[in-house]
Amino acid sequence: MARKETAADAANPGRLKQIALTYKMTRRADKKIGLVLAAVGIVTFGVFLAIGFLIGHPIYLGILGFLLAFLATAIVFGRRAERAAFGQMEGQPGAAAAVLDNIGRGWTTTPAVAMNRNQDVVHRAVGKAGIVLVAEGNPNRVKSLLAAEKKRMNRIVADVPVHDIIVGTGEGQVELKKLRTTMVKLPRVLTGPQVTATNDRLRALGDLMSNMPLPKGPMPKGMKLPKGGPKMR
Fold it and tell me: Cα–Cα distance between 140 and 176 in angstroms, integer?
């Protein structure tokens, strides 16, 4: 019992430190965060306290108001912190991959399944909605990347629906802060075993591509092994 209490006490400073860091990060992008949180807490508590005096139970309504004020402040803080985080991530390379990694259970993500020399990139997520290809970069250039990867997926897993999303703020694109919501709203057409089978097929393909053996015989003149590849024995 003592060990559990010690572990809990040790974890609390870590949580408080994390909250403090989150607040500092949010305040850089949202200068009014402190005033907003204070206003939400005071107004919520004040409303319930006033109702308590009106009905003759200020203590009970005051306690309830305090708890609800804390809850309301936490909800507002979480939303504004999330908005600030997305604002700082917007336009940064790999931002979509970070969102996909935190999309939740039921999804398997593979970052950078396709990329060009301009660092436009396509990520892949597999879930009950099927395969979702998420592209970030120049809208005109990523369309060709998406088309090629979508064609490749249709050849490998023809019985699985393939969706494509371009992250951005232009017409027909999905904003980074709405990416998770957009994917969660996709219709679920696969069962759990079908999702597992799809992931296994894609994983096996990746293993085959990465473990492809070198042809036997002398190396053609002028040909060089790629860096990080298998060594000749």
Answer: 18
